[in-house]
Amino acid sequence: MFVFLVFKKSFLISFILIAVICIFSMSLYSTSDTLPCIAIDEEHISLIENILELRNKAFLDKDIDSIEKLNDKNTKLGTWAYEHQLKKMKYLHLFADKQGITFTNIKSKVKIRYIKKKSFRLFL
Known about the structure:
The protein has helices spanning 9-30, 42-61, 64-70, 76-99, and strands spanning 116-118, 121-123. It contains four helices and two strands. By secondary structure, the chain is mostly helical. The protein is elongated, with a radius of gyration of 25 Å. It is 59% helix and 5% strand. The chain has a two-stranded antiparallel ribbon with strand order 1-2. Helix 2 (42-61) runs antiparallel to helix 3 (64-70). The longest helix has 24 residues, at 76-99. It has a domain at 42-123.
């Protein structure tokens, strides 16, 4: 015996379309090159920690030149990062002045959650 269900034509078409999209997206996800396996060792982490240490020292000393050296201002993202870091530095010192405190040290903890490889650059 065959059991036939009666569906509206629009419901059936939308269901099939959603199923095809899901199958297609899963096949693209599994063959995608955007999720490479990049090995990160202690040398990379220590390099990142040194960069953050330099940035934190520049924040404390109000050293704009050091922050500028850490960012590539030839690219749009590098310029935005530089401007954002300047805003953070200014906010930090305004906050300290308003509260009547002085920051003596800034410690950053490195935790790498995601790495994306694009040509010869890595984005963290």
